[in-house]
Amino acid sequence: IDPSLKSESTEAVLLKGQSWTVMPPTTWRSKVMWVSQDRTTLSGTPQEFYSQIRGYRSHKRHHLVASDPVKIATQWNLPETAWDRNWNALSGGEAQRASLAIALSLGPCILLLDEPTSSCDVETTTKIERTLKEMGATVLIVSHSNEQVKRFCTDTVVLS
């Protein structure tokens, strides 16, 4: 960071009481997860992607698996067979649920979610929101759904 641009708000980013500026990057990468609403351009299958992530040093050293992503996603009506299909063969909602389940299964402290249920029906959205609350991670979402914000969020920032 350019010292002339540094401000108090830069130092306010803490994870478990530690500034991101002093935390080892591998710890940060294992505890903060981002899931985009955009359709993934990954090759392979969700199961292969999950296995690849579990092989990263940041997850070997700093992480115990909280849950099986397949079990998480089956609660959201994602069939187990979806995990062995290529990403590009999944519907938008299936890919979104698989991505989110992978992120949750890695036990993050913070989840950064961009429209996490935009491709899901009301029933699935409700199930996902329930799971997110039960997991206990801090969740920062971008949402265009005022109803979801009212149901799910404890604090809001409105950008115009």
Structural class: alpha/beta
Indicate the overall shape.
globular
Subunit arrangement of the protein: single chain
Whole-number mean pLDDT: 84
Number of strands: 5
- Strand-residue fraction? 5-15%
Please mark out the parts with pLDDT under 50 across 5 or more consecutive residues, or reply none. Answer: 1-6
Elements, N to C (H/E): HEEHEHHHHEHEH
Share of helix, binned: 40-55%
First-to-last CA distance = 28 Å
Describe the largest sheet.
Answer: 3 strands, parallel
What can you tell me about this protein's structure?
The protein is 42% helix and 11% strand. It has 160 residues and is of the alpha/beta class. A three-stranded parallel beta sheet has the order 3-4-5. The longest helix is centred in the middle third of the chain and has 14 residues, at 92-105. The two termini are 28 Å apart.
What keywords describe this structure?
disordered N terminus, globular, single chain, 5 strands, alpha/beta, 8 helices, about 160 residues, two-stranded antiparallel ribbon
